[in-house]
Design goal:
The complex is a heterodimer of chains A (97) and B (309).
Chain A (H helix, E strand, L loop, with lengths): L9 E7 L6 E8 L3 H12 L7 E6 L11 H5 L23
Antiparallel strand pairs in A: 1-2, 1-3
Chain B lengths: L4 H9 L12 H26 L8 H26 L5 H10 L15 H22 L5 H29 L3 H20 L11 H6 L7 H18 L10 E3 L4 E3 L5 H11 L3 H14 L1 H18 L1
Antiparallel strand pairs in B: 1-2
The chains are: A alpha+beta (97), B mainly alpha (309).
Chain lengths: 97, 309
Protein backbone atom coordinates (compact mmCIF):
# COMPACT_ATOMS: atom_id res chain seq x y z
CA UNK A 1 0.00 0.00 0.00
CA UNK A 2 3.00 2.23 -0.42
CA UNK A 3 1.62 4.24 -3.35
CA UNK A 4 1.12 6.97 -0.76
CA UNK A 5 4.81 6.84 0.15
CA UNK A 6 5.85 8.84 -2.89
CA UNK A 7 3.97 11.53 -1.08
CA UNK A 8 3.63 15.27 -1.45
CA UNK A 9 6.02 17.38 0.62
CA UNK A 10 4.96 19.12 3.82
CA UNK A 11 4.31 22.88 3.80
CA UNK A 12 3.91 25.19 6.78
CA UNK A 13 1.06 27.66 6.40
CA UNK A 14 0.96 31.27 7.61
CA UNK A 15 -2.16 33.43 7.37
CA UNK A 16 -2.64 37.19 7.59
CA UNK A 17 -6.06 37.47 9.21
CA UNK A 18 -6.57 41.10 8.16
CA UNK A 19 -4.69 44.00 6.66
CA UNK A 20 -2.45 45.57 9.26
CA UNK A 21 -1.57 42.30 11.02
CA UNK A 22 1.39 40.01 10.38
CA UNK A 23 1.15 36.48 8.99
CA UNK A 24 0.72 33.92 11.76
CA UNK A 25 1.49 30.20 11.69
CA UNK A 26 -1.72 28.15 11.55
CA UNK A 27 -0.59 24.61 10.75
CA UNK A 28 0.72 22.55 7.90
CA UNK A 29 -0.45 20.56 4.89
CA UNK A 30 0.83 18.42 2.05
CA UNK A 31 0.92 19.59 -1.57
CA UNK A 32 2.82 18.71 -4.71
CA UNK A 33 3.95 22.28 -5.37
CA UNK A 34 3.63 25.84 -4.08
CA UNK A 35 0.59 26.68 -6.17
CA UNK A 36 -1.30 23.66 -4.88
CA UNK A 37 -0.15 24.46 -1.35
CA UNK A 38 -1.78 27.90 -1.61
CA UNK A 39 -4.98 26.35 -2.96
CA UNK A 40 -5.09 23.70 -0.24
CA UNK A 41 -4.30 26.27 2.46
CA UNK A 42 -7.23 28.34 1.25
CA UNK A 43 -9.57 25.31 1.55
CA UNK A 44 -8.19 24.01 4.85
CA UNK A 45 -7.45 27.17 6.81
CA UNK A 46 -9.70 29.97 5.48
CA UNK A 47 -13.19 28.50 5.11
CA UNK A 48 -14.63 31.19 7.39
CA UNK A 49 -12.88 34.32 6.21
CA UNK A 50 -9.90 33.74 8.53
CA UNK A 51 -7.48 35.26 6.06
CA UNK A 52 -6.71 37.85 3.42
CA UNK A 53 -3.24 36.57 2.54
CA UNK A 54 -1.43 33.23 2.69
CA UNK A 55 2.23 32.26 2.90
CA UNK A 56 3.30 28.66 2.35
CA UNK A 57 6.86 27.54 3.09
CA UNK A 58 8.35 24.08 2.50
CA UNK A 59 8.68 22.68 6.05
CA UNK A 60 12.19 21.43 5.29
CA UNK A 61 13.33 25.01 4.62
CA UNK A 62 12.51 26.20 8.12
CA UNK A 63 15.39 26.38 10.57
CA UNK A 64 14.20 26.37 14.16
CA UNK A 65 16.04 27.05 17.40
CA UNK A 66 16.29 24.05 19.67
CA UNK A 67 14.79 23.85 23.18
CA UNK A 68 18.30 22.82 24.29
CA UNK A 69 19.54 26.31 23.42
CA UNK A 70 16.58 28.08 24.96
CA UNK A 71 18.47 29.04 28.12
CA UNK A 72 21.50 30.36 26.25
CA UNK A 73 19.31 32.28 23.84
CA UNK A 74 16.63 33.70 26.05
CA UNK A 75 17.76 33.71 29.70
CA UNK A 76 20.25 36.61 29.34
CA UNK A 77 17.21 38.89 29.02
CA UNK A 78 16.11 37.85 32.53
CA UNK A 79 18.57 40.09 34.40
CA UNK A 80 18.14 43.12 32.17
CA UNK A 81 14.94 44.43 33.69
CA UNK A 82 16.19 47.96 33.02
CA UNK A 83 15.11 47.39 29.44
CA UNK A 84 11.57 47.88 30.65
CA UNK A 85 10.49 51.46 31.39
CA UNK A 86 8.87 50.42 34.69
CA UNK A 87 12.40 49.80 36.09
CA UNK A 88 12.83 53.55 36.44
CA UNK A 89 10.97 55.24 39.25
CA UNK A 90 9.79 58.73 38.36
CA UNK A 91 9.33 61.58 40.83
CA UNK A 92 5.68 61.83 41.89
CA UNK A 93 5.34 65.19 40.19
CA UNK A 94 6.03 63.64 36.80
CA UNK A 95 2.98 61.66 35.72
CA UNK A 96 3.83 60.61 32.21
CA UNK A 97 7.04 60.01 30.38
CA UNK B 1 14.10 23.34 29.68
CA UNK B 2 12.80 19.79 30.18
CA UNK B 3 15.40 17.03 30.49
CA UNK B 4 13.88 14.48 32.85
CA UNK B 5 10.56 12.82 33.56
CA UNK B 6 10.30 14.72 36.86
CA UNK B 7 10.75 18.05 35.07
CA UNK B 8 8.24 17.01 32.42
CA UNK B 9 5.62 16.02 35.01
CA UNK B 10 6.15 19.24 36.96
CA UNK B 11 5.91 21.30 33.79
CA UNK B 12 2.64 19.68 32.73
CA UNK B 13 1.24 19.84 36.27
CA UNK B 14 1.86 23.62 36.17
CA UNK B 15 -0.44 23.79 33.08
CA UNK B 16 2.40 24.69 30.75
CA UNK B 17 2.22 23.48 27.15
CA UNK B 18 4.56 20.96 25.56
CA UNK B 19 5.71 21.87 22.04
CA UNK B 20 7.01 19.51 19.30
CA UNK B 21 10.74 19.82 19.92
CA UNK B 22 10.52 19.56 23.72
CA UNK B 23 11.66 16.39 25.43
CA UNK B 24 8.74 14.13 26.27
CA UNK B 25 8.34 10.59 27.62
CA UNK B 26 7.91 7.90 24.95
CA UNK B 27 4.55 6.94 26.42
CA UNK B 28 3.27 10.50 26.09
CA UNK B 29 4.39 10.67 22.46
CA UNK B 30 2.88 7.26 21.63
CA UNK B 31 -0.41 8.02 23.36
CA UNK B 32 -0.74 11.31 21.51
CA UNK B 33 0.11 9.78 18.13
CA UNK B 34 -2.49 7.08 18.72
CA UNK B 35 -5.16 9.47 19.98
CA UNK B 36 -4.62 12.29 17.46
CA UNK B 37 -4.41 9.96 14.47
CA UNK B 38 -7.51 8.03 15.55
CA UNK B 39 -9.24 11.35 15.95
CA UNK B 40 -8.13 12.38 12.43
CA UNK B 41 -9.29 9.04 11.00
CA UNK B 42 -12.69 9.55 12.68
CA UNK B 43 -13.11 12.92 10.99
CA UNK B 44 -12.22 11.43 7.60
CA UNK B 45 -14.40 8.32 7.90
CA UNK B 46 -17.13 10.52 9.39
CA UNK B 47 -17.54 12.13 5.99
CA UNK B 48 -18.75 8.87 4.44
CA UNK B 49 -22.16 8.37 6.11
CA UNK B 50 -23.12 12.02 5.62
CA UNK B 51 -21.59 12.35 2.17
CA UNK B 52 -24.09 9.77 0.95
CA UNK B 53 -26.91 12.20 1.73
CA UNK B 54 -25.60 15.29 -0.05
CA UNK B 55 -27.38 14.47 -3.29
CA UNK B 56 -30.57 13.51 -1.41
CA UNK B 57 -30.89 16.56 0.84
CA UNK B 58 -34.49 17.85 0.76
CA UNK B 59 -33.68 21.41 -0.39
CA UNK B 60 -30.90 23.34 -2.07
CA UNK B 61 -30.14 25.15 1.19
CA UNK B 62 -29.94 21.91 3.18
CA UNK B 63 -27.66 20.51 0.50
CA UNK B 64 -25.33 23.51 0.67
CA UNK B 65 -25.26 23.30 4.48
CA UNK B 66 -24.51 19.57 4.51
CA UNK B 67 -21.82 20.06 1.90
CA UNK B 68 -20.18 22.73 4.08
CA UNK B 69 -20.36 20.46 7.12
CA UNK B 70 -18.77 17.53 5.30
CA UNK B 71 -16.06 19.85 4.00
CA UNK B 72 -15.42 20.95 7.59
CA UNK B 73 -14.94 17.31 8.61
CA UNK B 74 -12.27 16.97 5.92
CA UNK B 75 -10.63 20.12 7.28
CA UNK B 76 -10.74 18.76 10.84
CA UNK B 77 -9.05 15.57 9.70
CA UNK B 78 -6.32 17.63 8.05
CA UNK B 79 -5.72 19.85 11.13
CA UNK B 80 -5.36 16.71 13.19
CA UNK B 81 -3.03 14.84 10.81
CA UNK B 82 -0.95 18.00 10.76
CA UNK B 83 -0.80 17.98 14.60
CA UNK B 84 0.11 14.26 14.66
CA UNK B 85 2.95 14.83 12.22
CA UNK B 86 4.63 17.25 14.64
CA UNK B 87 5.28 14.18 16.82
CA UNK B 88 7.55 12.66 14.18
CA UNK B 89 5.25 10.36 12.21
CA UNK B 90 4.64 10.39 8.46
CA UNK B 91 1.11 11.14 7.32
CA UNK B 92 1.36 8.42 4.68
CA UNK B 93 2.01 5.84 7.41
CA UNK B 94 -0.96 7.01 9.45
CA UNK B 95 -3.21 6.75 6.40
CA UNK B 96 -1.87 3.30 5.59
CA UNK B 97 -2.79 2.21 9.13
CA UNK B 98 -6.34 3.45 8.62
CA UNK B 99 -6.67 1.73 5.24
CA UNK B 100 -5.28 -1.60 6.45
CA UNK B 101 -7.63 -1.59 9.44
CA UNK B 102 -4.74 -1.47 11.91
CA UNK B 103 -5.79 1.93 13.27
CA UNK B 104 -9.16 2.55 14.85
CA UNK B 105 -11.65 5.33 14.20
CA UNK B 106 -14.79 6.21 16.12
CA UNK B 107 -17.22 3.27 16.06
CA UNK B 108 -20.19 5.59 15.65
CA UNK B 109 -19.48 5.80 11.91
CA UNK B 110 -20.07 2.08 11.55
CA UNK B 111 -23.82 2.58 11.92
CA UNK B 112 -25.99 3.05 8.81
CA UNK B 113 -27.66 6.35 7.92
CA UNK B 114 -31.10 5.24 6.84
CA UNK B 115 -33.21 8.39 6.53
CA UNK B 116 -32.85 12.18 6.29
CA UNK B 117 -33.73 12.36 10.00
CA UNK B 118 -30.51 10.43 10.68
CA UNK B 119 -28.59 13.42 9.31
CA UNK B 120 -30.39 15.50 11.94
CA UNK B 121 -29.65 12.99 14.70
CA UNK B 122 -25.98 12.75 13.69
CA UNK B 123 -25.42 16.51 13.82
CA UNK B 124 -27.35 16.89 17.05
CA UNK B 125 -26.11 13.82 18.95
CA UNK B 126 -22.89 12.63 17.32
CA UNK B 127 -21.44 16.11 16.85
CA UNK B 128 -22.89 17.02 20.24
CA UNK B 129 -20.99 14.16 21.88
CA UNK B 130 -17.88 15.06 19.89
CA UNK B 131 -18.06 18.65 21.19
CA UNK B 132 -18.45 17.35 24.74
CA UNK B 133 -15.24 15.33 24.24
CA UNK B 134 -13.36 18.02 22.34
CA UNK B 135 -13.93 21.14 24.43
CA UNK B 136 -11.70 19.84 27.27
CA UNK B 137 -9.10 18.84 24.64
CA UNK B 138 -8.67 22.53 23.79
CA UNK B 139 -6.72 22.65 27.08
CA UNK B 140 -4.67 19.53 26.30
CA UNK B 141 -1.03 19.81 27.40
CA UNK B 142 0.29 19.25 23.87
CA UNK B 143 0.34 22.60 22.04
CA UNK B 144 -0.36 21.54 18.45
CA UNK B 145 -3.25 19.25 19.51
CA UNK B 146 -4.72 21.95 21.69
CA UNK B 147 -4.52 24.51 18.87
CA UNK B 148 -6.18 22.11 16.41
CA UNK B 149 -8.98 21.43 18.86
CA UNK B 150 -9.65 25.14 19.33
CA UNK B 151 -10.17 25.48 15.58
CA UNK B 152 -12.31 22.34 15.46
CA UNK B 153 -14.54 23.40 18.36
CA UNK B 154 -15.16 26.82 16.82
CA UNK B 155 -16.50 25.10 13.70
CA UNK B 156 -18.26 22.18 15.35
CA UNK B 157 -21.08 24.07 17.04
CA UNK B 158 -22.50 24.93 13.61
CA UNK B 159 -22.64 21.16 12.97
CA UNK B 160 -24.64 20.47 16.10
CA UNK B 161 -27.09 23.28 15.48
CA UNK B 162 -27.70 22.31 11.87
CA UNK B 163 -28.52 18.77 13.05
CA UNK B 164 -30.87 19.92 15.78
CA UNK B 165 -32.60 22.28 13.36
CA UNK B 166 -33.35 19.33 11.07
CA UNK B 167 -35.00 17.59 14.04
CA UNK B 168 -36.94 20.76 14.97
CA UNK B 169 -38.19 21.04 11.38
CA UNK B 170 -39.27 17.41 11.22
CA UNK B 171 -41.07 17.64 14.57
CA UNK B 172 -43.09 20.54 13.17
CA UNK B 173 -44.08 18.37 10.22
CA UNK B 174 -46.68 15.64 9.70
CA UNK B 175 -47.07 12.35 11.57
CA UNK B 176 -44.71 10.46 9.26
CA UNK B 177 -42.02 13.11 9.64
CA UNK B 178 -42.30 13.10 13.43
CA UNK B 179 -42.04 9.31 13.44
CA UNK B 180 -38.96 9.54 11.24
CA UNK B 181 -37.31 11.90 13.73
CA UNK B 182 -38.23 9.69 16.70
CA UNK B 183 -36.93 6.60 14.90
CA UNK B 184 -33.61 8.33 14.22
CA UNK B 185 -33.26 9.32 17.89
CA UNK B 186 -34.11 5.75 18.94
CA UNK B 187 -31.33 4.34 16.79
CA UNK B 188 -28.62 7.00 17.44
CA UNK B 189 -29.06 7.69 21.14
CA UNK B 190 -27.27 4.66 22.60
CA UNK B 191 -24.41 4.57 20.08
CA UNK B 192 -23.89 8.30 20.80
CA UNK B 193 -23.50 7.55 24.53
CA UNK B 194 -21.03 4.81 23.62
CA UNK B 195 -18.87 7.46 21.93
CA UNK B 196 -17.49 8.42 25.35
CA UNK B 197 -15.79 5.06 25.56
CA UNK B 198 -15.86 2.31 28.17
CA UNK B 199 -17.10 2.96 31.68
CA UNK B 200 -14.46 4.44 33.99
CA UNK B 201 -14.03 1.16 35.82
CA UNK B 202 -13.00 -0.54 32.53
CA UNK B 203 -11.05 2.27 30.89
CA UNK B 204 -7.38 1.38 30.51
CA UNK B 205 -5.90 4.72 29.47
CA UNK B 206 -7.68 7.11 31.80
CA UNK B 207 -5.48 7.76 34.82
CA UNK B 208 -2.11 8.34 33.11
CA UNK B 209 -3.80 10.56 30.52
CA UNK B 210 -5.34 12.61 33.30
CA UNK B 211 -1.92 13.15 34.89
CA UNK B 212 -0.49 14.15 31.53
CA UNK B 213 -3.43 16.49 30.99
CA UNK B 214 -4.32 14.88 27.70
CA UNK B 215 -7.66 14.02 29.26
CA UNK B 216 -9.47 16.34 31.66
CA UNK B 217 -12.65 14.46 32.55
CA UNK B 218 -13.45 10.78 32.76
CA UNK B 219 -15.59 8.97 30.19
CA UNK B 220 -18.47 8.67 32.64
CA UNK B 221 -18.35 12.34 33.64
CA UNK B 222 -18.61 13.43 30.01
CA UNK B 223 -21.35 10.88 29.29
CA UNK B 224 -23.39 12.20 32.20
CA UNK B 225 -23.05 15.74 30.85
CA UNK B 226 -24.26 14.55 27.45
CA UNK B 227 -27.37 13.00 28.99
CA UNK B 228 -28.12 16.08 31.11
CA UNK B 229 -27.68 18.38 28.14
CA UNK B 230 -29.71 16.34 25.64
CA UNK B 231 -32.80 15.40 27.65
CA UNK B 232 -34.31 18.90 27.79
CA UNK B 233 -33.46 19.48 24.11
CA UNK B 234 -35.43 16.37 23.16
CA UNK B 235 -38.36 17.22 25.45
CA UNK B 236 -38.56 20.74 24.07
CA UNK B 237 -39.42 19.50 20.58
CA UNK B 238 -41.56 16.55 21.69
CA UNK B 239 -39.11 13.70 21.20
CA UNK B 240 -39.12 10.81 23.66
CA UNK B 241 -35.78 9.50 24.96
CA UNK B 242 -35.49 5.76 24.21
CA UNK B 243 -34.55 4.81 27.77
CA UNK B 244 -37.15 3.52 30.22
CA UNK B 245 -34.75 3.96 33.16
CA UNK B 246 -34.13 7.62 32.45
CA UNK B 247 -35.27 9.90 35.25
CA UNK B 248 -34.24 13.10 37.01
CA UNK B 249 -32.45 12.48 40.30
CA UNK B 250 -33.18 15.31 42.70
CA UNK B 251 -30.38 14.26 45.06
CA UNK B 252 -27.51 14.14 42.55
CA UNK B 253 -28.84 16.93 40.36
CA UNK B 254 -28.34 14.68 37.33
CA UNK B 255 -30.37 12.27 35.24
CA UNK B 256 -30.10 8.58 36.06
CA UNK B 257 -30.03 6.52 32.91
CA UNK B 258 -30.09 2.89 31.79
CA UNK B 259 -27.21 0.50 31.33
CA UNK B 260 -25.34 0.71 28.03
CA UNK B 261 -25.17 -2.46 25.97
CA UNK B 262 -21.42 -3.00 26.28
CA UNK B 263 -21.51 -6.21 24.23
CA UNK B 264 -22.67 -4.14 21.28
CA UNK B 265 -19.95 -1.55 21.96
CA UNK B 266 -17.13 -4.12 21.99
CA UNK B 267 -18.60 -5.97 19.03
CA UNK B 268 -18.63 -2.87 16.80
CA UNK B 269 -15.16 -1.95 18.09
CA UNK B 270 -13.94 -5.41 17.06
CA UNK B 271 -15.04 -4.71 13.49
CA UNK B 272 -18.46 -6.39 13.47
CA UNK B 273 -20.73 -3.37 13.34
CA UNK B 274 -23.27 -2.98 10.52
CA UNK B 275 -20.98 -0.88 8.28
CA UNK B 276 -17.34 -1.48 9.37
CA UNK B 277 -16.42 -3.34 6.21
CA UNK B 278 -18.27 -1.00 3.89
CA UNK B 279 -16.65 2.13 5.37
CA UNK B 280 -13.13 0.76 5.03
CA UNK B 281 -13.83 -0.55 1.54
CA UNK B 282 -15.11 2.85 0.37
CA UNK B 283 -12.12 4.64 1.95
CA UNK B 284 -9.68 2.20 0.31
CA UNK B 285 -11.36 2.54 -3.06
CA UNK B 286 -11.23 6.35 -2.90
CA UNK B 287 -7.56 6.23 -1.93
CA UNK B 288 -6.61 3.85 -4.72
CA UNK B 289 -8.79 5.51 -7.35
CA UNK B 290 -7.08 8.80 -6.48
CA UNK B 291 -3.54 7.43 -6.73
CA UNK B 292 -3.06 8.57 -10.33
CA UNK B 293 -4.07 12.12 -9.39
CA UNK B 294 -1.45 12.24 -6.63
CA UNK B 295 1.19 10.80 -8.94
CA UNK B 296 0.31 13.17 -11.77
CA UNK B 297 0.61 16.16 -9.42
CA UNK B 298 4.09 15.03 -8.36
CA UNK B 299 5.15 14.53 -11.99
CA UNK B 300 3.80 17.97 -12.93
CA UNK B 301 5.64 19.62 -10.02
CA UNK B 302 8.89 17.88 -10.99
CA UNK B 303 8.52 18.93 -14.64
CA UNK B 304 7.97 22.56 -13.64
CA UNK B 305 11.00 22.48 -11.36
CA UNK B 306 13.15 21.28 -14.27
CA UNK B 307 11.87 24.01 -16.56
CA UNK B 308 12.72 26.65 -13.96
CA UNK B 309 16.15 25.19 -13.18
Amino acid sequence: MSDSKNSWPLWEVFIRSKQGLGHKHVGSLHAADAEMAIGNARDVYTRRQEGVSIWVVPAENITASSPENAEALFDPANDKVYRHPTFFVLPDEVNHM
Amino acid sequence: MIRTLEQFDAYVAAEKKIEPKDWMPDGYRKTLIRQISQHAHSEVVGMLPEGNWITRAPSLQRKAILLAKVQDEAGHGLYLYSAAETLGVERADLIDDLLSGKAKYSSIFNYPVLTWADIGAIGWLVDGAAIMNQVPLCRCSYGPYSRSMIRVCKEESFHQRQGYSIMVELMKGNEAQREMAQDALNRWWWPSLMMFGPSDKDSEHSSQNMTWKIKRFTNDELRQRMVDMTVPQAECIGLKMPDKDLKWNEETGHHDFGEINWDEFYNVLAGNGPCNKERLAVRNKAHHDGAWVREAAVAYAKKNQKIRA
